[in-house]
Design brief:
The protein is an alpha+beta fold. It has 2 domains: about 350 residues, Glycosyltransferase; about 280 residues, Beta-galactosidase, Chain A, domain 5, CATH 2.70.98. It has 13 helices and 22 strands. The termini are far apart. Pfam families: DUF2264.
Amino acid sequence: MPQPSTPGHARPADPAAWTGRARWGRLADDMLRAVRPYASERHALIRLPGPASASGEWSDGLEGFARTFLLAAFRLRGEDGHDPHGFAEWYARGLAAGVDPGSPERWPTFAEANQAKVEAASIALALHETRPWIWDRLSERTRAQLLDWLGLMVGTDMPQNNWIWFQGVTEAFARTVGGQWRQEDLDRTIATTEEWYQGGGWYSDGLTGGAHRNHDHYNGWAMHLYPLWFTRVLGAQAPEGLAERYRERLRLFLADWRHLVGGNGAPLFQGRSLTYRWAALAPLWTGALFDASPVTPGETRGLAARTLSYFTENGALTEDGLLSLGWHRPFRGLLQVYSGPASPYWASKGFAGLLLPASHPVWTAEPEPLAVERGDFTRTLDGPGWLVTGTAADGVVRVVNHGGDHSDPARPWPDDPHYARLGYSTHATPEYPADAGAGAWEASATLVDEAGRAAHRRPVERLSVAGGTGVSRSRAHWPVDAAGATWDPFGGPPAAFRTGPWLTVGSAVRGSVEVRVARVDPAAPGDAPAERVRFGGWALPVGTEPVREPEAAPGGRAESGAGPRGEGGTGTFADAPSDEPGRASVTSPDGLVSAVTDLGGLPLGSVRSGTGCSPLARDSATPLLMSPEEATPGTVYAAAVHLGAETPAVLPGVRTTWEPDGTARVDVTWPDGHAHTVRLPAPPQG
């Protein structure tokens, strides 16, 4: 597999090579054959090299089988059973061994490994897609044992997020083949999904603190995929009108989603489970398969090819043909505790397009430009609370996050870099330092204490997101035990925090620039903040040396970028003052510029350089601006934050006035005459 000479931000060298269905099929075949050497004797467990997940090696072995079985199923169904590599027989042997209670290769029950519920859904969907070639040819004994294993899902409690659909699709399949199912379970799954729907095609992946705050790629590869596949499995037995309801929601979602892919093919780098990589294509293919997409066949073809090319050309597949734990190359900093060696094979969902025949328009239409290549845009996504901008000149998509942060609004949480940053992009990523408790540097507006530690942001209160502007507020807080801090999208164990002032942050976006403004207010009247204000720009790779895989430990392949999952990275930082007054900038090897320029109160510029902190390259850097003294209540701090191919020659103007109720009104005038108004209200007292 070709390796990049740069960190891979530019458009892939040859995305056209991936526009053909046959090329996708060959890659699927290669990936399936590559895992065979790691299978148990009868194929029920595929134990890939690498560090085990929190669920343990037994569960990881089942995960290896289930996730690759789904890929094999898409391949078999798409070829109408033509099977020169013997996938059907190979996986049928594994099914028989996995569900045999007396087999040394048996799968864990759901009581023995909760993660098995996730993998059961992949197995159920794969069995549905391959009925004539696998299910119908299994022995009566194996079919009975398989239904016994799946049947243990009936009536069980499920985590209240996308996991409810693992029960839904598993019982749906069982229902169609005479297995155990319960109407109450199916009804509850459908009803709960309605509670999580926010409108406009957006779901929250469960509720946190009773609120819709959980937004990430699970909206596409789970909350839209499983409901429609549920109706596909049930066919005429599906509730009347349900399929059309889900199709219409997917149409709405894809109208937004197509704007969240960069011109280089990279999906938005935000949220957990990013090691699933091109699983991000799952909603696109689902839309095409279910006639539920506003994306033209030509754009679908071009977008999918660009994304697959982005990952394959940047080292996602190792020399032995396995998907590694990372984004480009192996990088453990972005993983979660549930990530195991086979977890990346959730990317199998990104091959759902193989279910469509070679004659389908998504495989024959002339590839069309991506949304970001058709012209600059600004979109407000009300569901997640995001402001989205894209610029055609460089293909960069940026998200300014004033919405969901995957946290309970009732208590302070430690920041997780996948949810708590102020900005996310297709061309920039968070940093993963060794110190998980130090707070954010990049993509941030924060307060820094005397020890140099940045305040954490979660939970964020969304105040407004509309018309190219957004405002949110948080109570600054610092972990009391910074050394024990962890990154966890679900909050992690209870932790103590030292609380500080209120920080209200606003944004106005246009093109490549965000005007970022902030006010600091004491938590109690008369308090004087003891912290300084710091704005962080976008972190970029600054060298051509890619992420390197360290020497493997005995018995497995080592992974770079972190110690134990969630406990911070192994990266190191060095700081240097900027030589430009009131400005700091960094430039990536392929010409992207990240710059922050003072527009009020932030004259001290610096650049923080990192080694081993980025999933894109070994070396990275972030431009920073800092106030010279402790934050002053009644002052609005402002900066222009840029990410793009060229730094704007003229920056917007900013004027602050105060309204009678204490609200700071910030009027932004852009060089082209366009204007925004951002209001920063005073926080509640008491």
